[in-house]
Each structure stands twice: as structure tokens, then as C-alpha cells.
């Protein structure tokens, strides 16, 4: 299946969608479960490939662990395999081998891990050859590159003989993901002290306790349904398995979408999305919810809402350079993603649709969020999404779910 055509719905949309479980919460729960000796009872394990890969690699005794394109799986397993003294080669797709990991490797080396680079300094593949705890239990790490390095270190901190005092340097990005890690660790009996003013987190040596743990549905996946409701003429969708007091920072989509014309009402099963009036312009800082940037950029472009976005620095080192990918694909809709302050502030503006009657063909750059963020365009005009299978990374049942509300087909060969 090389591409899919999404057609505008012929009827008002009324649907209940059971979202995939959050791969972020799931990957933390899987690592922590491993650290309890696989004795915890996890429910609602995510069907996302990133989480299935994590589960498979944790259970495998192979010397090579291939994470495919899963960033959290790569970063969390690096710390886990290192500190549990496992000898492994950690590798992934060519893109994974372009995503930096040097800050995490430097930190683990300081703690006593023997890690070397197979090819390029600072990037996977990595060779892990044992662990001998060092005297030092105090580390400093930059907070503005990827929070995944920090989460990875925090989860293994209780295993270190002297625990860990971690100081974060500079701006902290993706903070809710760090807080999610700490909350989940606490759910398995770990005590910690976080001082966000001093930017330090202190964790003593202690043991994880096996506990039951239920993983919440995925708020990042929910964002595509918000965009569908914002763009469709008539839509009401209930997303099942989401909570108002979520650990996931991407629940910020509730506030963002109030400006884009979607109202949220929490029910005892999840959240009900209904249409309301949209604002003419939106300014948003994505520092703590970078995975929402594509959803919001595309939705604003389609609704002709002027968007000013900041906090998108990390987008260039994700599954693809998401700034470049957005610029290329938004231009097919007659929209522009313009850099206003170098690498800091961008805006989305509508110029003119180069072909209002046409069916834009959207490339997805091996990035699930490109396919997921552009598919809702189909609520307004037919759209072709190339390489639709990329969604398996986080939301494998997306096309099946979308097929419940509108027609999707493989394009006819001419
Ligand atoms: O810890 C996590 O589960 C994640 C953290 C974020 O990455 P960064 O911290 O690199 O921004 C996010 O983009 C990613 O999808 C998942
Ligand atoms: C950036 C993402 O994932 P990861 O970094 O875990 O590959 C994502 O899911 O958007």
C-alpha cells in the first residue's frame, strides 16, 4: 500500500474512538517493569510499534538490539542495558543513526558505563560493554536537547549504589515527559526530590516495587481527532480512555483546540469533542508539547488561522526534520511556514491555494506524525497520503478508525 486517498465525509460525523495506549507511558512502564524483575502487572500495553519493539527487546537475549525508529526505545534501553551490565549493540534505522545520543552516552560513561560508538561519535549504533559504578553520583546534563536522555537516567537512578543527583542546565524542554517519568517511578514505590527552581532531581538508591499499572490512552493520537472535528463541517467524537488529570503533556491539545473551534467535555469514559467557534489567530509555545506542532500547523493552515509558533527547536532532530517536512508539504496547500526568528519563531500563513480543485499528494518522510497530521485535511478536500503505513509507530489502527467516519481508498492506477 503506497498511498491512500481520504475523501471528505458525506454525512455528519458521529463516532466513538478507542485510541491506542500512549507509547510514552507504555515505554516507561515496560522499563520499570523490567526493573521490578518483570513482576508487575501492566494493563493496556500499547499496540504502537515503538512499544512492541521495547517489549520484544527487553525479553530478548540477542546481542544486537534494533530499535527501528523509536527514540524513547533507543534512549531508555541504552541506560537500562548499560546500568544492568548487559553487553549489547544498540542500533536502528538510518534516521535513528542521525539522531544525537552523545549527551546521554557522556552521562552514562560518567556513571561508570563502558559505551563506544560503532560509527560516528555521538550517534548510534552503540556498543555497550559493561558497567562498573563510579564514585560520582552527581551529574549535570543540558535540558534543552531531548528530555528522553533525562528520563532514561532517572529510571535507572535507583539502581545506582549511591543514587543520583541530576542537575539540568539551561532551558528545560518537554518537561511534562520528565514529570511523567517521575510520577510513574513513584507509582512503583520510588521516592524522589525534584526542585524545579534549582533544576535538580535527587533519587537515593532504592528498589522498585512490583505494582499493577494501567496505561492511559494516547493524547498525541487524540490530537488528530481534534483536528478532524475542527475541520469537518459537522462532527461530534468521543475519545475513550483519556483522563482530565493526565500525565501526558499533549493533553494541552484541549486548550489549544478551544482556539481552533473544538470544545472538550470529560465523561466517565473519556472526552467528548464538539464544534464551537474558532479564533482568527493563535500564538503557541510548543516547548512542552513538541509532538503537537504538526497537528496544529496543518489544522491552522486549513482553517486559515494565522499561527505563530515558538518552542519548536527540537523538531529538527525527530523522525525527520519536521520543520523542513512541514514547509514542503504545507506549500502544497498554498500555505507557508516561515521562519521569523532563526530556529525559534515560525508562522503559518495562507498565501493562495495553488490548485484548489486538485488532490494534494502529501509525502510523509518516514514520520508517522506527517501522515497523522495531514490526513484530517480530507475533512475539507480529498487528500493523498503517501506511505500511510508509517502510522504504525504510534497509532497502528488510525486508518481503520478514520474509515469509520469517511471514505478512504487506494488511488486507482491510471
Ligand atoms: O519521553 C517521551 O516519551 C517523549 C519525549 C519527547 O521527546 P523530546 O524530549 O526529545 O522532545 C517527545 O517528542 C517524544 O515523542 C516522546
Ligand atoms: C518524536 C517522537 O518519538 P521518538 O522520539 O520516541 O522517536 C514522536 O513520537 O513524535
Protein described:
It is a single chain. The protein is α/β, with parallel strands linked by helices. The chain folds into two domains: 3-20 and 217-409, Enolpyruvate transferase domain (UDP-n-acetylglucosamine1-carboxyvinyl-transferase, Chain, Alpha-beta prism), CATH 3.65.10.10; 23-214, Enolpyruvate transferase domain (UDP-n-acetylglucosamine1-carboxyvinyl-transferase, Chain, Alpha-beta prism), CATH 3.65.10. It is 29% helix and 24% strand. It is built from twelve helices and 22 strands. It has helices at 23-35, 49-59, 71-83, 102-111, 147-156, 175-187, 219-231, 253-259, 293-303, 322-330, 368-374, 398-402, and strands spanning 3-6, 13-18, 41-43, 64-66, 87-91, 113-117, 126-131, 138-142, 164-169, 193-195, 200-203, 212-214, 235-240, 262-266, 270-275, 281-285, 306-310, 335-341, 345-350, 361-362, 383-386, 408-409. The strands form six sheets. The protein has a four-stranded mixed β-sheet, covered by helices on one side. The relative contact order is 0.15. The model has no long low-confidence stretch (mean pLDDT 97). Bound molecules: shikimate-3-phosphate and phosphoenolpyruvate (PEP).
**Strand line-up across the major sheet:** 20-21-1-22
Strand elements, count: 22
How is the CATH topology of the largest domain named? UDP-n-acetylglucosamine1-carboxyvinyl-transferase, Chain
Small-molecule binders: shikimate-3-phosphate, phosphoenolpyruvate
Q: Architecture of the largest domain, CATH level 2?
A: Alpha-beta prism
Report the principal-axis shape.
globular
How many helical elements? 12
